[in-house]
């Protein structure tokens, strides 16, 4: 599990009352798809154990009432958010900052460069702000010119106006120092070691054999490059193997349809949709190999999760993936279908 910034630890130890932390910029948790969400789901119960009082400002569509108002000591607060690509995070963060101003937490913890666009507003309202930089989201292929400009502005304002900054990888840490002449606390993403399972209920559901399938776990977004993996799997001709794509799209679009069509047209490819909890653990535990062909990452939690289950992995050779420090045989050139197929064979 990732460490915690020393200034917050000092605040916890020296305070006579619990430190109140409010988190903003994520959809919610538990069991909500996304790297930031997985990061937060692991992090905040640990802060509760340290003695903090933590409240998550989640987006109502992702937090059904069945989840309840508390999870592992973390308070879950639902606020309205539109299910509109490009507006969802921005409007929810704006409303969340106004809500935080009425609650006056000791620390407002903002995640990601898009929501960080509201850092100056939070400062103007007298809030103490920490921003975690999870990755240069303006490089994601799904965004247009206007959205990318807003994301760059969010990065700039978040890094310049936050009281403290956290970077989840050395790549991001160096970006903050070189682009904005600011220091950041480097706290790598991490995962808990899992309890290994012998269950095969999910395998039976998808007609899978243990150690005889390739696995990818990610949202259905272009930068994850599912089409590369589907084509490489077809090229590799792995006799008796299947390819399992776990994940869904928050806002289904043309890319979602392309992936679904390519999977349907390729023998042995299964779109398993979003999975969490015991079902996801089972898919990790019994996979023959995990592949992450993505073009953009912060520090990939899905890859760390696969490693925590002891699964062999292949990953594209982008800097955030290389930062994990695997052997050279675990990497392949980004976008090189034939190299990926050869590595699978």
What's the total number of strands?
14
Radius of gyration from the CA trace? Answer: 20 Å
Biggest pleated sheet: 8 strands, mixed
Low-pLDDT residue spans: 1-5
Biggest sheet: strand arrangement: 3-4-2-1-5-6-7-8
Number of helices: 13
Percent of residues in helices: 25-40%
Order of helices and strands: HEHEEEHEHEHEHEHEHEHEHEHEHEH
What would the average pLDDT be, to the nearest integer? 93
List the helices and strands and how they pair.
Layout: H1 6-14, E1 20-24, H2 35-50, E2 53-59, E3 70-71, E4 74-79, H3 88-103, E5 107-111, H4 119-124, E6 129-133, H5 145-161, E7 164-167, H6 170-180, E8 185-186, H7 201-205, E9 213-217, H8 226-236, E10 242-246, H9 254-265, E11 269-273, H10 277-285, E12 289-292, H11 301-308, E13 313-316, H12 319-322, E14 331-332, H13 337-344
Parallel strand pairs: 1-2, 1-5, 2-4, 5-6, 6-7, 7-8, 9-10, 9-12, 10-11, 12-13, 13-14
Antiparallel strand pairs: 3-4
């Amino acid at each position: 599990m990732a460490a915690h910034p020393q200034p917050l630890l000092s605040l916890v130890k020296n305070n006579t009352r619990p430190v109140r932390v409010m988190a903003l910029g994520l959809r919610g948790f538990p069991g909500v798809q996304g790297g930031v969400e997985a990061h937060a789901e692991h992090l905040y119960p640990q802060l509760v154990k340290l003695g903090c009082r933590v409240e998550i400002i989640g987006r109502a569509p992702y937090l059904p009432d069945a989840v309840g108002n508390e999870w592992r000591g973390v308070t879950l607060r639902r606020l309205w958010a539109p299910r509109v690509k490009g507006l969802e995070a921005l409007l929810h963060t704006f409303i969340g900052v106004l809500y935080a101003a009425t609650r006056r937490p000791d620390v407002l913890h903002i995640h990601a460069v898009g929501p960080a666009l509201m850092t100056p507003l939070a400062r103007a309202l007298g809030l103490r702000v920490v921003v975690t930089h999870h990755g240069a989201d303006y490089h994601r292929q799904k965004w247009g010119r206007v959205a990318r400009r807003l994301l760059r502005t969010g990065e700039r304002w978040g890094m310049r106006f936050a009281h403290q900054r956290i970077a989840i990888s050395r790549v991001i840490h160096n970006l903050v120092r070189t682009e904005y002449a600011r220091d950041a606390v480097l706290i790598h993403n991490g995962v808990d070691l899992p309890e290994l399972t012998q269950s095969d209920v999910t395998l039976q559901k998808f007609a899978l054999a243990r150690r005889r399938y390739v696995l990818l776990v990610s949202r259905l977004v272009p930068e994850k490059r599912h089409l590369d993996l589907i084509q490489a799997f077809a090229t590799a001709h792995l006799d008796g193997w299947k390819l399992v794509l776990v994940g869904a799209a928050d806002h289904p679009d043309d890319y979602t349809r392309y992936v679904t069509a390519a999977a349907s047209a390729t023998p042995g490819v299964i779109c398993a949709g979003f999975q969490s909890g015991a079902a996801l653990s089972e898919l990790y535990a019994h996979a023959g190999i995990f592949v992450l062909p993505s073009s953009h990452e912060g520090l990939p939690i899905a890859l760390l999760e696969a490693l925590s289950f002891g699964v062999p992995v292949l990953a594209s050779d982008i800097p955030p993936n290389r930062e994990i420090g695997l052997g050279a045989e675990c990497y392949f050139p980004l976008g090189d279908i034939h190299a990926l197929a050869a590595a699978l064979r």
